[in-house]
């Protein structure tokens, strides 16, 4: 049994991760400033320490005594990083640096960092492999990439084991559509259940590698112990492309006829095509996705219905 820190543990992915760690018998501390997370998301049995990781003293206190640090806290919004780059920079770079220093000084064994597929940019090459050239299109994408590089350097220079997990488009229960950082599927589901038309930026044929949150949690937890993963960057996704138009049609298959989407011009910084190569995750982490898109969407709709 290990003492684990989950930063951003009141958020969508972080709360699922904290719950699964508790289920597996670990001791869990959650550090969160509740800027976007919800106190109600934190699972019973986790120790909650409120505070902001941009404060190095708070980061040090949060990491004290922890064997594994799961750094999930971030401002995960491309549009916000463009309109307000400074707070995004502070949350995604300064706080990550503070967490790494804190983990090193606390004698943590490993840090698992929530990286982003946004680092790949809009290269037409599919699927995206970890060794391909990166081309961030937004401050958010660059910030997450800088976090990866800091992780790599802390492994090389200080011997702190780090693993950077590049998320693609994670979805599932607890992803609230009311947040400005919500994923497109949570917004789609909100529109579908309220009988309103969704807004799609672009032609709707842009594709995403939608990954159910349970599969992401499996990958992150595997990264905490996997031999040979230290210092690596690893995609955790499904390897399957789904267009936004198809996603809306899939909701119609679950809920019946829906309003037609409203199409607006594509937004600056948005990636058109995304699909992960998951071979490295299979080799180093020993995982494969278990929840297909349609099944994950159905589970998420059921959750949204139960909370509406």
Q: Can you describe this structure?
A:
- The chain is an alpha/beta fold.
- The chain has helices at 12-23, 56-63, 78-83, 85-106, 139-158, 184-194, 213-223, 244-255, 279-285, 293-307, and strands spanning 3-7, 27-32, 47-50, 68-71, 110-116, 161-167, 169-171, 199-201, 207-208, 210-212, 232-236, 242-243, 262-264.
- The strands form four sheets. The protein has a seven-stranded parallel sheet, sandwiched between helices. It has a two-stranded parallel sheet with strand order 7-10.
Helicity level: 40-55%
Indicate the radius of gyration in whole angstroms.
18 Å
Q: Name the structural class.
A: alpha/beta
**H/E order of the elements?**
EHEEHEHHEHEEHEEEHEEHEHH
Helix tally equals 10
Poorly predicted runs of 5 or more residues: none
Assembly classification = single chain
Show the helix and strand layout.
Blueprint lengths: L2 E5 L4 H12 L3 E6 L14 E4 L5 H8 L4 E4 L6 H6 L1 H22 L3 E7 L22 H20 L2 E7 L1 E3 L12 H11 L4 E3 L5 E2 L1 E3 H11 L8 E5 L5 E2 H12 L6 E3 L14 H7 L7 H15 L1
Parallel strand pairs: 1-2, 1-4, 2-3, 4-5, 5-6, 6-11, 7-10, 8-13
Antiparallel strand pairs: 9-12
Helix pairs in contact: 1-7, 2-4, 4-5, 6-8, 6-10
């Amino acid at each position: 049994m290990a003492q684990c820190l989950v930063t951003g543990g009141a958020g969508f992915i972080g709360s699922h991760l904290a719950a699964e760690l508790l289920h597996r018998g670990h001791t869990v501390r959650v550090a969160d400033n509740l800027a976007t997370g919800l106190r109600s998301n934190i699972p019973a049995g986790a120790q909650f320490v409120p505070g902001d990781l941009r404060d190095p003293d708070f980061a040090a206190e949060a990491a004290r005594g922890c064997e594994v640090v799961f750094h999930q806290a971030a401002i995960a919004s491309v549009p916000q990083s463009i309109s307000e780059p400074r707070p995004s920079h502070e949350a995604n770079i300064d706080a990550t640096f503070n967490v790494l220093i804190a983990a090193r000084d606390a004698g943590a064994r490993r840090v698992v960092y929530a990286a982003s597929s946004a680092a790949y940019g809009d290269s037409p090459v599919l699927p995206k492999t970890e060794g391909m050239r990166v081309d961030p299109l937004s401050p958010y994408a660059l910030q997450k990439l800088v976090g990866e590089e800091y992780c790599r350097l802390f492994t090389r220079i200080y011997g702190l084991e780090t693993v950077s997990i590049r998320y693609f488009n994670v979805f599932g229960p607890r992803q609230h559509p009311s947040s400005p950082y919500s994923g497109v599927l949570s917004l789609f589901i909100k529109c579908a259940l309220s009988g309103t038309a969704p807004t799609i930026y672009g032609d709707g044929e842009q594709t995403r590698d939608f990954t159910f949150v349970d599969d992401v949690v499996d990958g992150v937890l595997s990264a905490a112990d996997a031999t040979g993963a230290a210092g690596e960057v690893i995609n955790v996704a499904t390897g399957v492309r789904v267009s936004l138009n198809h996603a809306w049609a899939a909701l119609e298959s679950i809920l019946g006829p829906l309003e037609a989407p409203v199409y607006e011009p594509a937004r600056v910084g948005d990636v058109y095509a995304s699909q992960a190569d998951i071979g490295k995750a299979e080799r180093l982490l020993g995982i494969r996705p278990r929840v297909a898109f349609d099944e994950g969407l159905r589970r998420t709709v059921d959750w949204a219905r139960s909370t509406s």
